Model the fold of this input.
Amino acid sequence: MSAAYVLRVAEDAADREACFGVRKEVFVREQGVPEDLEYDAYDAGALHVLAVREDGLPLGTGRLLYGEAAASKTDGDLTVGSLGRLAVTKAARGLGVGAALVGAIEDAARARGLAAVDLHAQTQALGFYERLGYVAYGAEFPDAGMPHRAMRKALQAL
Done:
């Protein structure tokens, strides 16, 4: 498989459906997350980023919540965004897609004037996020039946 792909903000219905398709493949089918937990009210107002192979095949996705939508996930701090639903298809793992998606979401957060990004990482993914500059805080907690930790990264202005 070619490693060539592009990242873009999911602006139209087709891109959003591609994002949801990746999440269904990774979280629902692969990890067994119940579908009613995977999709939520935040999806409508979130900024979704999509990674697409040159031939149009979706490879990965992630979303950014900000403003009031993120407040419940950031202890009410409106200067912090919430990165979530980061998913990369099995075929695309190891190509740098996940790190590129995180970078694109951080850029979108910076563009909205946010000072930091929080996320809830599956404990098996802590090392991935630590390599990208995120620091874990607080106790481990369950989410969709899997252990997670909260993490945060301060954003440097561009």
Q: What stands out?
A: Strands lie at 5-9, 47-53, 58-65, 80-88, 116-122, 135-143, 146-154. Residues 93 and 101 are 12 Å apart (CA to CA). The mean pLDDT is 94.
